[in-house]
Amino acid sequence: MATVLEKTQTRNDTDAERAKYLTFQLAGEEYGIEILKIREIIGLMDITAVPQMPHYVRGVVNLRGKVIPVVDLRTKFGMESAEYTEQTCIIVVDVGQLTGIIVDTVQEVLDIKSDQVDPPPPLGAGVDTSFVSGMGKVGENVKILLDIDQVLDMSELSAVAGEAATDAAGTEF
Amino acid sequence: MSGERESSNMQNRDWTELVEMLAEAAAAPLARNDLGPLARMHTWCDEIRRNAGQQDQPWNELLGALRALLERVILGEAPDPDSCLEYVPAAAQMLQTGAAGEKIEPDDLIARMEAALVNMVEDADGVGVGAGDEPSETNAVGTTPAADEPVSNAITAMTALVNAGVSRADLGGLAQIHTCCEKIVGATSAEGDERTTGLYGVAGALLDLVSGLILDEVADTRTGFALVPRASTLLADVHNGVTTEVTEVIDQVRDVIRGAVLTPPAESEPVLAPPVPEPMAATPPPAVAPTPEPVVSESRPTATVEVAPFVSQPLKIDLDDRENLQGFVDEAREHLDTIEASLLQVEEHPTDADKINELFRPFHTIKGIAGFLNLRDINCLTHEAETILDMGRKGTMTITPGIIDLIFAAIDILKSQVNAVAAYMAEPTGEYCLQPPCAEMVVRLRRVAAGEAPEAGNRVAPAAVPVADVKAAASTPAAQTASTIAAPVAEAAKAGTKDTDQLSIRVDTRKLDALVDTVGELVIAQTMVNMNSSVDQDETLRRNVTQVTKIVRDVQEASMAMRMLPIGGTFQKMKRLVRDVSRKAGKTVELIVSGEDTEIDKNVIQKIADPLVHMVRNAVDHGIEAPERRQEIGKPPTGYVYLDAHHEGDNVVIEIRDDGAGLDPRKLIAKGVERGMIGADEQLSDKDAYGLIMAPGFSTAAKVTDISGRGVGMDVVKRNIEGLRGKIDIDSELGKGSVFRIILPLTLAIIDGMIVRVGDERFVMPTILIEQSLRPTPSQITTVQQRGEMLQVRGQLCPLVQIGQLFDIGPRIDPCDALVMVVQSGAQKMGIVVDELIGQQQIVIKSLGEQFKAINGVSGAAILGDGRVGLIMEPVGVLALHKSRRVETGLAWVRRSIAASEEAAETAARELADLAGELSEGLLPRDKDQQTVEPNAAEIEATSSL
């Protein structure tokens, strides 16, 4: 898997006009992540909860000996959480470090040309578009292209845990 | 190869045939580097002796002598192998003659051969004259008088070599020229007619030059190499009586050796390359030149000793040579550590030549490799330091404390130079490697070598030394160096690998880490197999699995052991530290080190170095009293700091002990109170009081010097050590000294862990932290104000932690129905309530990654037998979290009461309004009433959110 992806990567580097995206569904909406960021797709597995984490961090899993965090994207986006099904997948993305994201279903890999991508439209207050890199128009459909680094910006996470830590330390005496 | 095969048939072969073969082989040109024929001949000698039976006595003796000679040459034990080999053809031929039945008289030849082996060879008579019928080529050159023969031979050989071209790359050629020079010097003398002294002088100078070139000690290599053919031609001329004017060339050679940059000799030599630009000259350094001003280190004060200036040149590092460079960096660092250690010893025994010798060797190695890798600054710096040491070793200079200090300073510069090379390799910025300036140091070292007092530094001018003396002094080290190196090429080339080849190999740590990771996987997989229920059903399978388990454990231990290093290196650094700190503080402190061989994981060693530095510095700076004070209280003026490492079970204990003032618990408590860290009426045990010095904040403002002041950064030390899953323990006796014990796990990668179940989750608790596990009886449980549960264990009260609630994964568990693990958390004990102990297992620790770094109570993750991830509990964090939760619970109670009072207020308001409405319509508007209540509620809310 990794080698195939690496090959894709080199090919894509030379062709800036066109990028490959892995598309997946989340509560009926269609999203895409640039394939360069994706390491592999695994089925759902037992997740070990980690305390003091924001609710969207479901915990950690064992990816062939590596312990990686798993984020529930529905929860992260403030969507209603759903029962995990056979279709539920963990997409392992590389955002500096490997992280799993839980999505409803994985769809396909699409070539999206840069002229097919619109900038994210202003959606008004209440909708955070900072982690949307663009809207990809593929035929009739619109795919929401995610800037996954932004989505999984872990400095936020550390801050949360850090707060808990200072809380704890502050009351030690 | 063929020799070996032949030897098997040899038993049957006629020995006379062997003698024939021997003579034939001996007649061919022999070289000591070509061991094949020599080895074959040696074997034949053996065979001949075995098969020939009783030959006459002289013949046998000759055979034995030849065999011995070959053996010595093969083993590299012959002092002058080339001249030894010259006897071989004669001997072989004589043997052949003898074998044919003729009478031989080998005594003379045997004597000569034996003499050659003990280097008593008298060349005066030429080679192998005894038999008179040898085919030796060397004898053919016989036009000059007999006494000149070796000289003319050597000169002819040298001329041939020089004509073939000399270059830095051809070390073999240089070495041969070196040998030729030695021969000439050996055959001539400083006394005698002009011709002899001329030859002696030129050859001597050339000898030094060539050895300088071989060792890359000559700064101006171009001129150096240009001078070789010049000197060689001159030698021939002098030998043939054409000229006796040698001083000019000798002076030039000497100048080059001394490092001066020369203008080329007047007559244009074909090989002569344009000279290296004069440092002062206009050629500006490249824009990125590392040393901003490659000017001679300073404009010399008038009266200082005149030495050759040194200019550091832009260092271009060939990154293709990365492997060699990395090897050099690693090795140089080790050597520098060794040097520091030896230097400290030399400081104690400044006249002990052995100790200086020990110091000399690592310098020499660094110098050799640095030269090989074209690291000129490092090369020169080490060379100059070495020169001084060499003079110390020879007794021509006394190693004074000033010199030691100077060399220490040079070591510091060397370290930064080596670091610069490492940094450049890690991140090549610009065309050249930035080098810390060293020119000044080189010049200072040169001055000291030339007789200037080291204390004079580079500012104060000492009494002028006559220039001639200086010249002589400056040239001697080179000469001495040259004469001490027996096989300079071999040494220079091999120095890099010699030490490590036999005992160890260097492995990239990433490879080791990968191995340890993989072994970790193996351990996990093995555990999974072990837990498979079918294993119990099949006896054979069970036995095999047990066997595999054992092997896996061995592999694991072996892979762990590979990462282990003795802690001695780190301890060594402390010696230097103690020396520096004690000097600065005006104390005499001796560091006594033991247990240097104790092995610890490399990662741990790296991370423990800084805390150790801190603690040792504290011990010297604050622990040990000033000498006067010590004498006042009847202690010896010299303070002692002891550093010890040893194993205790699966832990390593590092102990820092001093015989200083000790910690005063009362003062510590007083200060703790003053800083508001403890209540004024709090009763602290002495141990708890010592623990205060490691509390953050205790130290930062620790300007109050009436306390021993050890607080400086101790919180950092504590944090570092806890980061290594270790703990620190302090003991002290007022007036007698203190002991700091650092207890560390052997490795960071694998621990013994107890797997426990809490609700649906499983956690791991490092076994070393568990004091006991028990199922408490209700009488052992005490609650405090319904809020805190306490467990009474062996007369001690410790808080009970509901880990499930704390981690938000489950409800409260009744400890009397479950199990309590009593664990050590920092200085405190606590009980952790768990549902079940599942079992003990070797745990490969996995990092949770950056984003989980700040989690309290969890130090990492482990992959359990079923492939799931289990979190590793970290008691200190758990307790901290527990305490904060307790406060939260308290807050919740306050919030609840506030909410209740709000509610009450609201009800009251409503009632009031109702009442008001009832009483009079419109007189008191309803919402106005509300307003009077609301500010109150808001106030309450504000308080509650605090």
Written description of the protein model:
- The complex is a heterodimer of chains A (173) and B (946).
- Chain A is an alpha+beta fold.
- In chain A, 22% of the residues lie in helices and 41% in strands.
- Chain A has a single domain (19-120, 128-167), classed as OB fold (Dihydrolipoamide Acetyltransferase, E2P).
- Chain A has helices at residues 2-14, 73-76, 148-151, 154-170; strands spanning 18-26, 29-34, 38-43, 57-63, 66-72, 89-94, 98-103, 105-113, 117-118, 132-138, 141-146.
- In chain A, strands 8-1-2-11-10-9 form a six-stranded mixed β-sheet. In chain A, strands 3-6-7-5-4 form a five-stranded mixed β-sheet.
- The radius of gyration of chain A is 17 Å and the shape is globular.
- In chain B, the strands form four sheets. In chain B, strands 10-14-15-13-12-11 form a six-stranded mixed β-sheet. Chain B has a five-stranded mixed β-sheet with strand order 2-4-5-7-6. Chain B has a five-stranded mixed β-barrel with strand order 8-9-18-17-16.
- The radius of gyration of chain B is 41 Å and the shape is elongated.
- The termini of chain B are far apart.
- Chain A binds chain B through residues 46, 48-53, 59-62, 65-69, 97, 154, 157-158, 161-162, 164-165, 167-173, and chain B through 517, 520-521, 524, 677-678, 761, 806-809, 846-858, 861, 863, 867-871, 877, 880-881, 883-884, 887.
Secondary structure blueprint with pairings:
The complex is a heterodimer of chains A (173) and B (946).
Chain A: H1 2-14, E1 18-26, E2 29-34, E3 38-43, E4 57-63, E5 66-72, H2 73-76, E6 89-94, E7 98-103, E8 105-113, E9 117-118, E10 132-138, E11 141-146, H3 148-151, H4 154-170
Parallel strand pairs in A: 2-11, 5-7
Antiparallel strand pairs in A: 1-2, 1-8, 3-6, 4-5, 6-7, 9-10, 10-11
Chain B: H1 2-9, H2 15-27, H3 35-52, H4 57-74, H5 81-85, H6 87-99, H7 107-117, H8 149-163, H9 171-187, H10 194-214, H11 221-239, H12 247-258, H13 322-348, H14 353-372, H15 376-394, H16 401-426, H17 439-449, H18 467-484, H19 488-503, H20 509-531, H21 534-537, H22 539-562, E1 564-566, H23 568-585, E2 589-594, E3 599-601, H24 602-623, H25 627-632, E4 639-648, E5 651-658, H26 665-674, H27 686-691, H28 714-723, E6 727-733, E7 737-745, E8 750-758, E9 761-766, E10 770-774, E11 781-784, E12 788-793, E13 796-802, H29 803-806, E14 819-825, E15 828-834, E16 836-846, E17 858-863, E18 869-873, H30 875-919, H31 926-945
Parallel strand pairs in B: 2-4, 9-18, 13-15
Antiparallel strand pairs in B: 1-3, 4-5, 5-7, 6-7, 8-9, 8-16, 10-14, 11-12, 12-13, 14-15, 16-17, 17-18
Helix pairs in contact in B: 2-3, 2-6, 3-4, 4-6, 4-7, 8-9, 8-11, 9-10, 10-11, 10-12, 10-18, 11-12, 13-14, 13-16, 13-23, 14-15, 14-19, 15-16, 15-17, 15-18, 16-17, 20-22, 23-24, 24-28, 30-31
